Amino acid sequence: MDRDRGGARRHTRTAIIAPAIITLAILAANAMTNAGSASTTATTSNVAIESTVTALAAPVVGLAATPSGKGYWRVAADGGVLTAGDAIFYGSAAGFAHDTIVAIAATRSGHGYWLTDRQGAVFSFGDAAFHGSMGGKRLNLPIVGMAATPNGSGYWLVASDGGIFSFNAPFLGSTGSIRLNRPITGMAATPNGSGYWLVASDGGIFAFNAPFFGSTGSIRLNQPITGMAAAPNGTGYTMVAADGGLFRFGTNSPFYGSAVGACPGAPAVAVAMSPGATGYWIAFADARTYAFSPSSPAPQCNPSTSSVIGLMAADLFARVNDERAARHLAPVSWDPTLANYAAAWSADMASHGFRHSAIGNLLGPYNYVGENIAEGGATTLVGSLHNAWMHSDGHRANILAPGFSRMGVGVFCAGNGSIWLTEDFGHPSSAGPAQTSSTTPPVDPIARPDSGTLHC
Q1: Mind listing the pLDDT tens digit for each residue in 349-378?
Q2: Which of 57, 261, 374, 403 is most buried, judging by how many CB atoms fall within 10 Å of its CB?
Q3: Could you tell me if 14 and 392 are in contact, meaning their C-beta atoms sit under 8 angstroms apart?
Q4: In terms of Cα–Cα distance, which of 323, 339, 333 is closest to 300?
Q5: In degrees rounded to 5, what are phi and psi of residue 185?
């Protein structure tokens, strides 16, 4: 639809696409999310402590929870240690000569911890006793993970080829002599100390004197697995991917959510659990740490407002939710995948012309998708394009569709000052069937009739 107002040319188009058959996609997602789920054992509390982005000299690489479940430590690649909640700072490796730090493990008492670097050097703090290291010894491949024995009397180091190095801890086997499809990225010990698991970047699990509960080795992942943690009661384990995706396996492993929708600006690097609380934490390289439990809200994600383009995207996102609220519809959440897709398409339109994307390519991860696009001149206010959409039946139907739960906005300012917009909407297949409607919503009430002040 073309509209001319005040000399400014605006183009708006819309599309809503829903697949005829979505059963298999939904079943596959549900099978992953609910694998082995059962009622959880009552514990003293739910995990709750969270952390925000922190200015760091080096990225966070590891996470360990306190026994109480009311705090955690994070370690950065330079050996710096960050505390949260009831975690006490006992020192760091920042003042010692070392290679890149790769992992942290806490003592059973919660009054100390060990750090290890890529060369296998071990640094002990608090009541963590030093039992030896691989420092100064030749390794075939670098160390990537560490686990402590439950009684705190020893620890294991694991290399990327799955080679295990035991220090006052039993050697129960390794993959050092096995050709792996993908490198090992972490390990976890059974709570009774009788075994351990290794995890590869594809989610393949190698169990040594420990029960095998399942893996993602045969599943194509969006991002590689970066860490794992054992269930405190020994009935399962949890893996986290670089995009914040979470995979839980075991006989008592409820799924409380993941950090995929948390707008990560850095990769997820670790997951941790504690015997003192229900749930788990996911830590990112920029120090953000999210809590997941029966009482924890899902991580909130919003568009960046650090640039004019970001401010315009945030304005459109807010306008859509204001319109939905005015009609008692559930808000849509910001979706990084849809936002990246929309941003790329707006830039493509600026170079190759005004047209819709192949929005149907998003079907699979989403079982219901839609798209609004618009173009305006150098002085076109972004709010005026939103209002043009609201006066168009097709665009308004997208903005107010009850079946959409996610949204991303892409804004591109061309060299000549023109503005190109894409709004992509979706409903994740993992969230179940979308609520669809064939009724075109009325124009009024328009919650945000103003055009605002933002433009390219």
Answers
A1: 999 999 999 988 888 888 888 999 999 999
A2: 374
A3: yes
A4: 333
A5: -120, -10
